[in-house]
Predict the 3D structure of the following.
Amino acid sequence: MLSNPTPLDELLSAVEQARHLLVVTGAGISLASGIPTFRGSDPGAVWKRDVTEMATLAFFLEDPAESWRWYLSRFETLVGAEPNASHRALVELEQWQEARARDFLLVTQNIDTLHARAGSQRLIEVHGSAARVRCPAPGCRLAAPRGSLPRPDAGLEAFRADPCRENLPHCPECGAPLRPHVLWFDEFYGDHEDYRWEQVLAAGEQADVALFVGTSFSVGVTDLLVRATALRGAPAFSLDPRSERPPYPSVRVIPAPAEEALPDLVRRLR
């Protein structure tokens, strides 16, 4: 037993004993892959330049062409991005838990698909995916609560060449302009089955260890999950290289980059 354990030592000990391990990731985990964060202090953080009102259903309905122009500029930052060491370490952590017949769930706020590409299986993309689009028209088969289709099939080539309203991609079922398959600020987690909100809630109630990676704790899912674990006294950790304490006294901060700390954690588990 270490006489003066570090926060990473405490996380290691907690994970070794965890029957239900919950990991929640935010934009910071993909920074090492070259993708800007949203609210972070790094150069190029999205919300430093763009107002959050643009990421709403109301804005899309008012000006779908401008909404798509903004989102395509965001999606362009994903081109060429590959999973980094932290994504791959979480795959190993999932496998470590499964080998011991323990529960693991990874909930990501990111839409960049890097966790899936790294090989994560027990994964919920709670804010949607940049790889898919859907119809905004209520009642359409390709609309919420369960419809969507792959983004490469959405016919965005003409819009990229000439980004005007006439060239918007349209729903093959009803003809309405397609929208990104993402959760907007004026929408709810339960609006689409792909967000698997009931499963997220259940994980928050069951987890005996929660690890938050690269998140600013600025969205509803992180607030809910921190409070759910704190109510039961379950340990919660935050990997944050800026050493900024999140607005929750129950969260233990580990001031290290995820792409260094997570591979180290997995090595020590092995």
Residues 44-49 have pLDDT under 50 and may be disordered. Residues 85-99 form the longest helix (15 residues). The two ends are 18 Å apart (CA to CA).
